[in-house]
Amino acid sequence: MENLDLLVLRDLRDWRRAGQRALLVTVVRTWGSSPRPVGSILALSESGRLTGSVSGGCIEDDLAWRYRQLWKDGEAPSVPSRVTYGVSADEAHRFGLPCGGTLELLVEHDPDPAELDALLQSLARGGLVRRRVALADGRAVHEHAAQPEELRLDADQMLNTFGPRYRMLLIGGGQLGEYLATMALFSGFEVAVCEPREEIRSAWRVAGATLVPGMPDDAVLAFEPDQRSVVIALTHDPKLDDLALLEALKTPAFYVGAIGSRRNNEARRRRLEEHFDLGADALARLRGPVGVYIGSKTPPEIAVSILAEVVAAKNGVAVPHDMLVAPAKNLRSETARL
Questions:
Q1: Dist. CA 48–CA 60, nearest whole Å
Q2: Are residue 172 and residue 147 in the same domain, yes or no?
Q3: Digit-coded pLDDT (tens) for 296-327
Q4: In angstroms, rounded to a whole number, what is the distance separating the alpha carbons of residues 73 and 77?
């Protein structure tokens, strides 16, 4: 599944290339609860086609009705405009916003298709791109960004950062790897799977995930994890998992972890510290046993557990300590002894 932002920008460019009037709408501020985070975008064409979202659906419907009327009457503005939803309790209820939720949108009218095409070409080369929109005239330019940034809005301009898809490298292509790869793909991750064992690699069945032969440590080096990357070891084989984790922990990957029992994970930490001189800071980044404790037993349930923790980390949400697998199991063991 492709990055939603790229789909929105590509559809918008194509509509504008075809001569259609169109909007690019960005969530620039929220107060209270909000269905979509700041930086979310949608595109709307004069024919009524829509890609992306800024809410659960009602606001999109209102935007489509409002601007198609303005286009029909020839009254649509030519410079960026701001629209706010949910100021009153009635509006919040009408537009399906959570209780107390309010969001402010910046609406760009008829973005330049040449600028959108150049932006898409920059994104296709990888890396992060910062897009600047002048509020006075709607002129947009983009430039390289060194790291992910929050959307910024002031009296003169909006800056929104777009980047490559979040990426996940799995070490091990067994049944759990297949379920986790499938779920990660549907969650918007680009997925690669390193599987050096021919008998398992030949049985791989997940379309859309890149299958990588060779040793896991080489696969991690070739993957070049960045701040939007995940590396998870799934083989239960220290000869494969440890080398991959050793290399992954040297990178900026935001999530590095491994499956296994509590005992095996403690043994892994000791090996990495004693035999590979891995320091305390690097070991503190190693997650394991990976996942949120949901009593999972089967491969698909374990995959749900793991992906839940990954998505929480991606979104900057700290999972309560007692909900992680090891602390939760320790607590259940202590409770059972009482």
A1: 11
A2: no
A3: 999 999 999 999 999 999 988 999 999 998 88
A4: 11
